[in-house]
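wait is this the right file?? whatever heres the structure
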């Protein structure tokens, strides 16, 4: 699950809105039935349901069998339950991968998967040639690799890193000092790998090497697990994590731990060239492409005039496998991340909502489409594929209900998406009256890009409601197991979702969609490249999370945004920004963050088979 964590609290009050259909006030979803599915989907036998793994395929087959047993009709490709699509699920490892650091007479050789692994890699589509190769790059120490002028700290202020390798410490200085201008003991965005990679790459560095800082000297688990589940982002330069114990001789020779202590005490950078130190690096990695499957069942509508319209009920069923780069506890990467709450709980709810609906077939005017999405953890890929290849045309899809992490209710649920439709708000308030013990809190901003699969529908201007019971200490960790699920609470949320689904399916008029105004300081919905906390200039696009690596396709352009005023439209694919080629969303992030509000940039987009040039004047965020 990839969700924004900033919620606005609003107690939902009871208000009855007239709809032509109502069901019993008793919850229809059995907690026992839900837990049967949760226990299977989150069992060790499925190895965390990682995308591109046999465990995910077993889960897909199980969901299809449950849909069939529930009485739904198969609605996938060629009369099957499945809608297959290809995605990048990791890396293939070639035979030639090595890192060698030399300084004077000392040489240390690092081995992939035991003493180093890539956090970011410039992988090819094949293993026929090295994807990255360097020889005798000069090595530079750049402190913590942070450039934060607003905090009056910049590790790059007095060092030239162009065409060099850069070695840095992880984390940030003074993170144990409550009075630090680095937000006290709370992390700032400058600790993020992507921020550090951006800082190095934008200054011309050829590679970045990260080693644990002296206060975090624990390198366990992740190195050996890389060969089991190889994953890495593409930041345009290799970014490597090296084992601290293996580089210990150089840390002593270069006195880097002492320099880290001085930085922590003074917040004065200690960056400098490492005399006679060079790096040799060969990386032979290729993108691993896998076929994954959405699972789709359908319950045809019974109304002569409205039966061709549909309500989608969905949840993602993929998770992290053995953790990989998305684990919230990297030291435990390599252990099975079972994902009982995220999102076996939501998947179980979709199955049981389908079962409850099939027992009342004649009661639903509109068609109900039940979907278990793959690829959500890699960027909403399953739902992005579906909205491009819908079973019921999008113009006939009146709403979407999404269930993602509903297993830790404890009497509460967060609901997003109601703000785009007064009709949905009224339907929800009527349905919620039936569950007085379930406190519903509305997330005012609704789902944002990078949230969950309801986003893929919302950007197509389809009203989408998301149900979510909240974050917890087991999120994206190996401890998210079935025995921690609140089965009664999950059943109440699933029953509430069923009730509002039935109201939408049977109302005479379809829900309206009123696009929300951009919110202040939002992260990705108002920006083109996923800025954190409103950082950077405003461009005004929402990326298609399912686009390939040949540019950034826009799912939507915000009305009256800089991109909109420049003539860009949804469906355009950005291929160049300010003279720099754009292949991935990461490329766009780097390029955009190098600019400031007020800058004017030339961009190139591909629209169908035509290349279009445009001039965009960046602004501050609305």
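ok assuming it is, sequence goes like this
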């Amino acid at each position: 699950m990839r969700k924004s964590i900033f919620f606005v609290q609003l107690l939902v009050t009871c208000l009855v809105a007239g709809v032509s259909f109502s069901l019993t006030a008793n919850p229809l979803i059995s907690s026992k039935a839900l837990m049967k599915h949760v226990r299977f989907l989150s069992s060790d036998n499925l190895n965390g349901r990682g995308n591109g793994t046999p465990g995910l395929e077993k889960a897909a087959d199980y969901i299809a069998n449950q849909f069939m047993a529930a009485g739904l009709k198969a609605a996938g490709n060629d009369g099957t339950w499945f809608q297959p699509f290809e995605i990048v699920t990791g890396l293939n490892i070639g035979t030639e991968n090595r890192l060698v650091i030399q300084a004077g007479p000392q040489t240390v050789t690092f081995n992939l998967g035991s003493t180093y692994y890539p956090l970011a890699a410039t992988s090819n589509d094949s293993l026929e040639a090295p994807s990255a190769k360097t020889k005798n790059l000069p090595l530079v120490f750049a402190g913590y690799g942070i450039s934060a002028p607003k905090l009056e700290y910049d590790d790059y202020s007095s060092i030239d890193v162009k065409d060099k390798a850069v070695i840095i410490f992880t984390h940030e200085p003074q993170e144990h000092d409550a009075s630090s201008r680095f937000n006290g003991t709370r992390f700032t965005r400058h600790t993020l790998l992507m921020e550090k990679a951006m800082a190095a790459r934008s200054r011309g560095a050829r590679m970045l090497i990260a080693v644990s800082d002296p206060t975090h000297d624990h390198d366990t688990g992740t190195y050996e697990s890389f060969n089991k589940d190889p994953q890495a982002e593409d930041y345009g330069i290799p970014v490597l994590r090296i084992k601290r114990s293996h580089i210990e001789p150089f840390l002593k020779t270069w006195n880097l731990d002492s320099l880290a202590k001085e930085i922590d005490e003074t917040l004065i950078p200690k960056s400098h060239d490492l005399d006679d130190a060079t790096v040799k690096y060969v990386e032979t990695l290729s993108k691993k492409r896998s076929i994954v499957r959405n699972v789709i069942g359908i319950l045809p509508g019974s109304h002569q005039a409205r039966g061709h319209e549909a309500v989608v009920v969905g949840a993602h069923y993929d998770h992290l496998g053995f953790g990989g780069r998305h684990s919230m506890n990297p030291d435990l990467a390599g252990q099975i991340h079972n994902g009982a709450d995220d999102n076996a709980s939501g998947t179980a709810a979709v199955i049981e909502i389908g079962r409850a609906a099939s027992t009342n077939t004649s009661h639903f005017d509109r068609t109900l489409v039940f979907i278990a999405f793959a690829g959500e953890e890699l960027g909403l890929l399953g739902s992005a594929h579906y909205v491009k290849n819908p079973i019921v045309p999008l113009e006939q899809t009146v709403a979407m209900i999404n269930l993602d992490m509903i297993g830790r209710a404890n009497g509460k649920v967060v609901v997003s998406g109601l703000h785009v439709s007064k009709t949905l708000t009224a339907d929800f308030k009527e349905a919620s009256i039936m569950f007085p013990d379930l406190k519903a809190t509305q997330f005012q901003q609704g789902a944002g890009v990078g949230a969950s699969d309801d986003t893929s529908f919302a950007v197509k201007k389809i009203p989408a409601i998301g149900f979510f019971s909240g974050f917890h200490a087991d999120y994206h960790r190996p401890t998210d197991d079935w025995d921690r699920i609140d089965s009664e609470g999950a059943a109440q949320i699933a029953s509430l979702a069923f009730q509002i689904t039935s109201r939408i399916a049977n109302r005479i008029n379809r829900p309206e969609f009123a696009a929300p105004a951009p919110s202040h300081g939002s992260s990705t919905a108002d920006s083109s490249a996923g800025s954190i906390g409103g950082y950077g200039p405003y461009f005004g696009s929402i990326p298609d999370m399912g686009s390939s690596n040949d540019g950034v396709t826009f799912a939507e352009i915000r009305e009256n945004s800089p991109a909109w005023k420049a003539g860009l439209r949804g469906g355009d694919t950005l291929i160049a920004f300010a003279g720099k080629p754009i292949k991935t969303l990461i490329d766009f992030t780097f390029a955009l963050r190098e600019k400031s509000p007020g800058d004017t940039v030339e961009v190139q987009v591909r629209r169908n088979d035509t290349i279009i040039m445009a001039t965009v004047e960046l602004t501050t965020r609305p």
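Confidence is low (pLDDT under 50) at residues 3-26, 445-450, 518-534. so i think its the right one actually
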